[in-house]
């Protein structure tokens, strides 16, 4: 990034910074922790294929829409929506999209902090060397020990949340941008090393089959909504994060190619994580459907077998924690930008308040793994699952649906065309059909299929 060079350079560099920030938001626990465990619980291949379709047909267009709206409005998502609706002569209630996003962000961050806390703790656990040549039972009992201790989980959750809020309060710092430049490539390298290991582990074929063999009979009642929710979650869509980030995008950056890069990066990381984890599950006779602990049991097993595995493993969890923190920061951005804008209050006060709220709500997730483990709040779900499902599977797709409808049917064409530069008429029509019809109808059909019996 050199200010003195010709315009071309400055442009490129800023677009690149945006790609980094957006990829930093997208790539997180959703890819490495959530994707494999949700795929494992939902039949593997059946889930993965539907997820990929959702990413391409629903996720990518909605990401374009969010960034375009953000760059057009250049404010917090709530204000952007109100402003754009007003200037197009539409109902000011469209700002509800921003409000829903704030609520979804709080809910997601509440459990995100807890899981990221586990990753933080595992930096040290791996470094201690206790998993060297360990069998599945050792690794499992260490993890179960963590789950059984609310005090320990709260300790790590608190450290993660304090770190996140500290960075948010200071404003997204230069330091963080530099860190992303390093750890993103490092995370890739680490995944490639691990892929090499799982390729030779003896379970690769079985893992591959589990992930990519699509059988209709594996598609259960929940598969569609879980895959759709996961697509939104992993791409950071439906709650204004990309809108908030989009408001900082330089005017010259092309949204289409930028989105293609982010979506590709995010998908590669998720699929790689799956290809590392599933072979290890089968080789070690673990349960694919064991749930949120999947990554914390399989990865340490692999590191226990690798040369220098304790160091590698410790670095791996450090990278995961980094990936989690850049995502966590982005979860707060819609709310923070609005509160700062509206009340003109200091970033510190707002960030601390929001962080405390998320931390408090996160205690429910902590207890879901121990003292409240048997407490089913609704639909047979515990606190954590309920918060996760309401936010990821309902609020995010609903937000995305409204965003897609708004940009295609409620804004004048010139406004949109100024952001999403499409010269050829057929491609414009294609964009409009995908964003304005395919994406929202898909969300609607999945909703009906899930919530309306006998649809
Ligand atoms: N995408 C992140 C992940 O995969 C999580 C995340 C960050 C997110 N910001 C978001 C999810 C906004 C939904 C909406 O871990």
Structure in words:
The chain has one domain: Up-down Bundle (Amino acid/polyamine transporter I), CATH 1.20.1740. Helix 10 crosses helix 16. The protein has 18 helices and no strands. The chain has 455 residues and is mainly α. The site of tryptophan has 16 residues, from helix 1, helix 2, helix 10 and helix 14.
Quick structural summary:
The chain has 455 residues and is an all-alpha fold.
Helix content: over 70%
- Number of helices in the DSSP assignment: 18
Computed over alpha carbons, the radius of gyration is 21 Å
Cα shape: globular
In angstroms, what separates the terminal alpha carbons? Answer: 54 Å
The CATH class is Mainly Alpha
Strands, total number: 0
CATH-assigned fold name: Amino acid/polyamine transporter I
The share of residues in extended strands comes to under 5%
Q: How do the helices and strands line up, and which of them pair or pack?
A:
Elements: H1 7-26, H2 29-41, H3 45-73, H4 77-87, H5 96-127, H6 136-147, H7 150-169, H8 174-199, H9 204-212, H10 223-234, H11 241-246, H12 255-283, H13 294-305, H14 309-343, H15 347-368, H16 383-410, H17 413-419, H18 425-451
Helix pairs in contact: 1-8, 1-12, 1-14, 2-10, 2-12, 3-4, 3-9, 3-10, 3-12, 3-16, 3-18, 4-5, 5-7, 5-14, 5-15, 5-16, 6-13, 7-14, 7-15, 8-12, 8-14, 9-12, 10-16, 12-13, 13-14, 14-15, 15-16, 16-18
The site of tryptophan has 16 residues, from helix 1, helix 2, helix 10 and helix 14.
Keywords:
single chain, 455 residues, mainly alpha, Amino acid/polyamine transporter I, 18 helices, 77% helix, globular, disordered N terminus, binds tryptophan
